# Entry
Amino acid sequence: MNFAVRLGFLTAVLFAVGVLYLGMGSYSISFTEILNIFLGGGSEDARMVILDIRLPRLLGAVCTGAALSLCGAVMQSIFNNPLVSPDILGVSSGAACGASVALICGCGSAAVFACAFGFGISAVLAAVLITAIAGSEHGSLLVLVLAGIVVSAFFSGIVEMICAFNPRADEFPSILFFLFGSMTRITFDDLLILAPVLGIASFLLWKMGYALDVISLGEDDAARLGVPAVRLRYAVIAVCSIICGVYIAKVGMIGWIGLIIPHMARMIIGVRHRMLIPSSMILGALFLLGVDLLCRNLFTYEIPVGIVTSLIGAPVFVLILCRNFGRLHRARV
Amino acid sequence: MLEFKNVSYGWKANEPLQKGIDFHLQRSGILAVLGSNGCGKSSLMSIFTNPDMLLGGTILIDGRNFRDFSGRKLFSVMSLVAQNSSVVYPYTVLEFVLTGWFPWLGIMGVPGKREISSTEDVLNRIGIGDWSNRLITTLSGGEFKLVQLARAMVGERKILILDEIDSALDFANQIKLTDILCSFAEKGGSIVLITHNPNLPLVLRSDALIMSKSIPFIYGSAEEVIVPDILEKYFNVRVGQITGGDTGCRQIMPLMHL
# Structure
């Protein structure tokens, strides 16, 4: 089955899950009524549920899943490491810290978003600065990863301290909401920022797909082909950090998608980035949409989506490791 | 084609690995570089990706200082094959070799039918045309060396710098390698071949440059340089030589204590 057919199949499955997503919930809506609503008809209640609640949330889940998977795929390539996730440089922990600080200061949602984004980007800059101070060009990728771990731990520590000593206990649920991730607060106004950021970045990264193929063979190898490897590395990190910063600032911390979805895409579609990027995005969108559908419908109360992505993501990753890691990922000396 | 003029190089500014390296590689020329482990053979190749390693002297490519070339232009003229390389992602052989076109295609480019067709020709010339759909993560070390050689030869580059390309090849592929290299040179290409095999420059009738950590390098034709006295001086081992076969070619052999 060639690439276009496989991608078309995945898109069709995404569309089907999307229809299910719109129809299922505490207020069930049939497929016919959904169609009617999009054609301008339908009852007032159903229109409100679909257009004001579920549709923006659906689009938010699609964009978020696509964004995190895109960043995961690309970061795994530039770091030449299949165990890298998009928050390797601390953008998640930084954003969580920013959101927590803004919440205990009693800030509104716009300020919380801005703080989360600002802290997330600052965390990445801190990791890069540590690398510049500590590392030479030789082995600087390893130093960058270690710096990211250090920065993540630092900002996570601040979040834990805020949770432990926060005098404003009524902010605690909001902080938890951010730490666990959720699609509940996405509106169409948010999508005006989220969608263009994803659209522009994904197009740029897709156009660079061939260069990403080259750099995924290792920076030394890429340099021997004339690739400006270090500049390209930091350009891609900048793009991915902005994407992750924007999305995490809005929906909170949702883990595992950026780590496991690119592996699934490589298994199903292939490793070339011009195929890997669109397939990772569609698979990521499908995964998060499916998880959010579960979160809304599994129990009478809603489970934060980040909890379910971790519960599903970890065993799925173990399966991928057991099935394919030895075959797919072998060092050649 | 490639000229080193009084070149000193090293990873640290005050600790040159080698000093005063001088050689002139003409079109269709082959230079074999030999030396003890750690004397700087592979580092000689690293100068082109790490120009700060050049501590003194000049490196000219077709009369132009190599620093005047942009990265892509430099690697459209020359190709480097490293001694060690690790691959993580399971590209096919064809996809891997297609990455060799980067200097021409650039960051936003993508290989088209012309590049794919030309790449398949190179794979066929090397005798691995039926490997196109094999995954590089399933290749043996020697097989991967042949694929790296194919990538080095796409795009009609004029200079190949190959670091121990023969080290993992089986006997038949080593002979095939000499045919491939001779064919490349006959078409006007130049080759710098870093090797541990002193017989390779004799078979290729190339120039030879032997390095050491403790004594100055020596450079000349293989016939002049690859002789028992000089090899014993540079490697501190006893060697002998035999002459024979249809071509009357000399071969070096170690005199081992049994």
Summary: Chain B has one domain: 2-254. Chain B has a mean pLDDT of 91.
